[in-house]
Amino acid sequence: xNLISDIIKKITDNEIWKSVFRHGYADTPRNRALQTISNxxxxxxxxxxxxxxxxxxxxxxLGGITFFIFFFETxxxxxxxxxxxxxxxxxxxxxxDLMYAVPFGRFLRNSHRWAGHAMVITVCFHxxxxxxxxxxKAPRQFNWLLGVMLLVLTLLxxxxxxxxxxxxxxxxxxxxxxxxxxxxxxxxxxxxxAELLGVKINSDIxxxxxxxxxxxxxxxxxxxxxxxxxIPIIAGGLMILHFWRIRKDGGISGPL
Amino acid sequence: MSNHVxxxxxxxKVFTWPNLVAKxxxxxxxxxxxxxxxxxxxxxxxxxxxxxxxxxxxxKAPWYFLGLQEALVYFDPWFAGVVLPSIIxxxxxxxxxxxxxxxxxxxxxxxxxxFAVTVFVFGFTFWFVLIIIGVYxxxxxxxxxxxxxxxxxxxxxxxxLVSFPNWLGVxxxxxxxxxxxxxxxxxCRSFYEKLGLIRYNITMIMFLIMMGVIIKIVLRLMFNIRYxxxxxxxxx
Amino acid sequence: MAEALKEKELKSGGIYTSRRSFFTIAGWGIFLMTxxxxxxxxxxxxxxxxxxxxxxxxxxxxxxxxxxxAENTVTTLKSRKVFIVRxxxxxxxxxxxxxxxxxxxxxxxxxxxFECPCHGSKYYRNxxxxxxxxxxxxxxxxxxxxxxxxxxxxxxxxxxxxxELTI
Lengths: 256, 236, 167
What we know:
The complex is a heterotrimer of chains A (256), B (236) and C (167).
Chain A: H1 2-12, H2 15-20, H3 29-37, E1 48-50, H4 56-59, H5 62-81, H6 91-100, H7 105-132, H8 141-162, H9 168-182, H10 194-197, H11 205-210, H12 217-248
Helix pairs in contact in A: 5-7, 6-7, 7-8, 8-12
Chain B: E1 13-15, H1 16-41, H2 63-72, H3 77-98, H4 114-136, H5 166-187, H6 189-195, H7 197-223
Chain C: H1 2-11, H2 19-43, E1 60-64, E2 73-77, E3 82-87, E4 90-95, E5 106-108, E6 113-115, E7 122-123, E8 129-131, E9 140-145, E10 151-159, E11 165-166
Antiparallel strand pairs in C: 1-10, 2-3, 3-4, 4-9, 4-11, 5-6, 6-7, 7-8, 9-10
């Protein structure tokens, strides 16, 4: 026994260890507070929270799980990017490659895809939970608004993601999705009032999404950039705001 | 209510570490285990290579977009694909500014906010009903089949659709929206007075559009109605 | 000093802006206009997202010779996304692109109609929509006969649905 505590003492009682971990791990109120304050990842939380906020049956952890899945998607997504090339001649072959030849590739792709589905579910039910607990009410109106934007971004991430394999699902999804853009009033070439602004097939919003009049290489590349870079950054920024506003709007909602 | 953050000193507080963090950690572990097990046993879908000449039959989006795909069957693309989703998103964003009932903040509460909860849960459920129809009840060429029926190509060709004559369409829309807006003012004055003119109108128009979508779906399914209103620029 | 000037200007019906608020407004104005200019150059209809040169297949292409198509048939050219409809000696080229949301419609010979697998639009043999959500008939493209006897389609030119090329 003495040996173990000696070893622990040797490891922790030196300048290097103490420069990394600023406080001890012993279960004291002081350490509990410091654990939250002095840790950049945990200081998103207040040091103390109302007791009801720790009840699973109040929040169902849905917001946190959604954020966790976003993180999970980022990690698995970055790994998939090592093999996938957004080129119409290669994309599908790369998927086959990932599934049959790359070690661990099938498993990573599966988990990235299924986690995406799970994120849509958790984000929807997080919204339902926030609605049913009336947590959007003053002073938290703006945070609900941010949440709706994040819901839309989650759906856009799913949409841009599932057309990357360049399979039948993705190809016809991008066809239908961008043609919906083409039917937008005023700024879609087939939409109502398009003539008013003189919008044509090569100057409307569908053209901007596809990078052409037909679905081809530029469309896949654009979807790839939106999926892997642009939307995650926008969503990440909004998430920072969303979490910040929970704290600034008085912490988690609860009975007044 | 002012926008000042209210601090309730009577609430019992506990340390975040470990009371909350432990549960978050546990939730993350459980989700990971679930995702990893699911990914191990179930392969993610990968269809055939994209074929620009021929879609799958039926060509279905992933489940979370099938509500939208189902809605697209009943309306022109500019409405079902663009305007309706925009109305839904803007309507969702507007909820906190429309629902000014201070009760039920911070806890599950139905009795103090019957209208709000009923409408929201109804809309939420309706969306998932459309998804279920899309997933389980649409066969080749997007033909309707009951879940217990076997999909086949041997279905009767549907009859040509008909539209309302314009006088009837205008009349129907006027009665629907005019009546829909006036009736609660007459019958349920307190509801109107609590919300005020602007909030009342936005709330009711959103509500009437939601119900109108359902009515149009029923009209299409039962009476083969294509359009209620036709104009040179757009049709509904 | 400033107060006196303000009094004087307001009395004579002029407008008065302090130097500080003038620069505040001017600063914000220039900042927002710069942002707007960038947004216009990126997202505007002639901006970054709208390439000028497209690497797309030619919209004008031969579909074959008249004798390639049997009488009273509808032939699907999947690679070109068109149907060739031949009735007697009359030819028509109809787009496979559904006018609802752009899926490729399928020619169902037994029922004599075009059907869309995405949202169930139905069209008669002449391309006129009759059921499902399609808002207008399928596009009919201009068809001509070249000097060497080939049928040439120009998908930039959409013609009325009665148009036929009789040979």
